[in-house]
Amino acid sequence: MPENSLKNKRMDAHAGSPHTAENSFHTETTEPPTRMTRIQTLTLISMASVNFSSMICYSILGPFFPNEAVKKGASQTVIGLIFGSYALCNLIGSMVMGKYIVQIGAKFMLIAGLFVSAVCTILFGLLDRVPAGAPFISLCFIVRSVDAVGFAAAMTSTFAMTAKIFPDNVATVLGGLEIFTGLGLILGPPVGGWFYHSFGYEVPFMLLGCLLLVMVPFNIYVLPYIEAEPSKDSFFRLLLHGKVILICFVTVTLSSGLGFIDATLSLFAMKTFNLSSGYVGLIMIGLSLPYCLASPLIGYFTDKYPVTRIGFTVTGGVITALCFFLLGPAPFFHIPSQLWLTVLMLTLIGFSLGMTAIPTFPEIIACAHEQGFEEGLSTLGMVSGLFGAFWSTGMFCGPIVGGLITQGLNFEWAATVQGATGLLAALLLLAYSLCQKRKQRVQENNQQADENTPLLNE
Fold first, then answer.
1. What angle do CA 131, 136, 141 make, to 5 degrees?
2. pLDDT (tens digit, 9 = 90+) per residue, 409-432?
3. Residue 24: strand pairing partners
4. Contact predicate 91/386, CB 8 Å
5. What local confidence, expressed as pLDDT, does residue 21 receive?
């Protein structure tokens, strides 16, 4: 009986039907199921739809909003700040939501975040009716910032609930969900651009906003209510773990690399290879598609062999860094820019991004448990908020720093600096892991030597 209690406490195994009055997630079973329960299946469908719809709403602005904003009197700098405000508010929102996920409730947080994002998406589609100049720019900042907070709430609760409901397959499930994240990022620009050219500015936002609104009652019906107690732990204590700090540094370099590519690659490709915006969009698929395909496989493997997580993260980080060196390519290589090389490097970056990013979230959870954090929703929410905050930090800094270097020097040097930062993060994580393994090996040898030392008589 005590053994079953311990197992129940850790596994938080699955409740009955999600259609009960409480729709709650309790500990009922003593053996892990060989197949997914109904509540797990419905939750997986819900999380996939949230990832897809959130990402497609995030990515539809790229093809046409900058042009519309210029018509309304916004400068290129202001447009960049509008995009940057999204990442900044997402950063703040992720930290706050992760800290208070138990008090707010994971299910309520996700549903409220979806509703806020839906309303903001619809409102953003109405901004073309606002007078040009300060009114338009101000409302862009306000709507975009509130939308970022809603997005932070939805994604933070998604990560936390996924880790709670699938405790032994976190990386596998997250890797599978990243397929829908990638699909949203891939389909957003062409779908948004097509609707914009066919029906005007308002229609893309109205359709996607209504899609998000439809998902609100669906998630109310499907998602379980997760019982949890608030924790006294803090983000600061979690960051006392050296490995967590280095993993967060790696996360920042990954997201800043993506933000840098979003902000600078299109102009570089158009200028260097004389490509149209449509062909640039096709090139970007070379980044997203390998990530979608690689993420589930990497998630499954790192769940089955957790000891490989740091190895995957470091290897992926090194490959990503080398690809950024060749994306320009770096001036000191004295290699001319070629379209096939750029496409190949983007493809490898997409693959290596999955190698690096997917193992980081479950590894931070493991570090939190090593620090003595309780196994529950509060800790998972804190980890989700931390991960989202550092990811948003990179998305905020990447375009700004990359844009400044590109403007001051050129794209080749900016990509080189991005690659050097990623390489530094990967090597620091590798060095720390090797030192920890060596320290652990010395402790084991000393313990074994103490056990083998014969007792001396007086």
1. 165
2. 888 888 899 899 999 999 999 998
3. 225
4. no
5. 36
What SS3 state is found at 93? Answer: helix
How far apart are the C-alpha atoms of 256 and 402, rounded to whole Å?
9
**Rg of the chain over all Cα atoms, to the nearest angstrom:** 23
Residues facing residue 225 across a β-bridge: 24
DSSP 133: T
Given a cut of 50, whether residue 22 has pLDDT beyond it is: no
Give the max Cα distance, the chain.
95
What region does 313 belong to: left with phi over 0, alpha with psi -120 to 50, or beta? alpha
Whether this prediction's pTM lies above 0.85 is answered by no
Degrees, nearest 5: CA angle 211-216-222: 120
Cα 297 to chain centroid, rounded: 17
pLDDT for residue 445 is more than 60: yes
Residue 273 is which amino acid? Answer: F
Coil/strand/helix, residue 114: helix
Per residue in 359-373, is it b (16+ CB within 10 Å) or e — as a string?
A: bbbbbbbebbeeeeb
Secondary structure of 351-399 in HEC code, one letter for each residue: HHHHHHHCCHHHHHHHHHHHCCCCCCHHHHHHHHHHHHHHHHHHHHHHH
Packed helices 170-199 and 202-222: angle between N→C axes, nearest 10 degrees: 150
Q: Which two tokens stand for residue 250?
A: 């790696």
What is the pLDDT averaged over residues 202-226?
83
Q: Provide the terminal-to-terminal Cα distance of the chain, rounded to the nearest Å.
A: 47
Neighbouring residues of 394: CB distance < 8 A, sequence distance ≥ 6: 251, 252, 253, 254, 255, 256, 257, 258, 259
Is residue 316 within 8 Å of residue 354, measured between CB atoms? yes
Torsion-angle region of residue 228: left (phi > 0), alpha (psi -120 to 50) or beta?
beta
Q: Tens digits of per-residue pLDDT, 299-334?
A: 888 878 888 888 888 999 999 999 999 887 888 888
